[in-house]
Amino acid sequence: MFIQNELKSVDYISSHNINENFISFFNKPGPYYSSYPVLGEWNDFEDTSSYENALLDFFSSSPSKPLYLYLHIPYCAKLCYYCCCQISISNNRGIINNFVRCLIKEITMLEQFFLKNKIMPNIKEIHLGGGTPSHLTTDELNSLVSALKNFVNFEGLQEFSMEVDPRTVNFEHFDYYEAMGVDRISFGIQDFNDVVQEKINRVQPYELIERLMNEEVRDKFKGVNFDLLFGLPMQTRSSLRETIELTKQLSPERITLIKYLHIPNKVKHMKMIAESALPDKSDLPYMFVESTEALIEAGYSWVGLDHFAKQTDSLSIAKDNGRVYRNFGGESPGYTKDIISLGPSSTSAFGNYYFQATSNLLKYKNTIDAGNFAISRKYKLNSDDIIRRDCNFELQCNQKLDMTKIENDYKISFQKYFGAELELLKGFEEKGLVHINDKNILVTTTGRYFVRHICRVFDTFLDNTMQYEAHGT
Fold this sequence. Notes:
With 473 residues, the protein is of the alpha/beta class.
């Protein structure tokens, strides 16, 4: 077993129950499955016509399906050493404004595509990500929103969210974001400890965040999200407990608690973080388990892999109703399942297609200026991929796989189709991580900490004997 005894009365385990098997398996590398197959399995591909044909295929079969629109803004004011996103550091307003002009041209290209093909997209969610969207001026943001209004009904949006760097905003910015239609903001906190902040080159005192979280600001938005990381340099179990306590005091509506991915061989600026400064790997499961315990005891619901939400938040309500879904940004309330993305390195997932734009800023700008979408990767899912993605996401998001539903949806015999996988899952059942009956595969309390390992059973690209290597962005 992975713990000495499993606590049945709550949906987390106590750090006092962790044993060496738990620690070893928790630290086993593997994908977090924001897509299936994962990005590293997609094909290099540069063909605008293929992307447009895929859009036509999707809209011909799903003309009114709700959509999530993502815009990637890569610019940041200062480099954070932990970051593995596609970013560019610049405070040159001319360079940034030129990028905004290019992104608006891409938005206009998508609008013209819709007009030409008489498509009326049913966009229900918008997210501005990065990089740092709040690094744009209010005029630049206004230009983006004005362009989007040509094909987006902002009155009909269920969520309009935006990532905000607390170091680059003041109260007037929040007034503008609210007027623009943003109803959820996300702060990149990472950690409140002064020493850790110095090591990751992101110094933002607790007092700064506390001031920005005043009642007047909170009333402007239906939710504030915090992003936290564990496994950062100089971070300890004790210091992370303090960060969690301070987070609870500020009481954001949602929290993500993600393991820091140290890949200096692929993200060069991570070389600024010394390996010797990282916490011992044996501390990592304790950090996550102790944080989970503290957040749940504070009234947060644990959603999916690493998200936490207040019980009144739409994400928590979706969890209670079994509607949680997963996209490239993490767990979502399930309003939408298909994403169209714009901007460099952005990833789209609609119908049975995946696409990624080029991460090279110069190539992105030149391709858009030439009137073409800057596609660099593509994957078309076959029927087996779709079935396995469905299994994967149900286990991740809702900790329950209804085998009967899979049979009815895809006209298969689950026992025959997944005979080999069910045999492998028996090993997880013996460890106390899943429970299997005639109708369902249920993730146990302990199994929640290993759900990505459980999902790997359904992965035909990466079998359980292969060593996984993170690919970065």
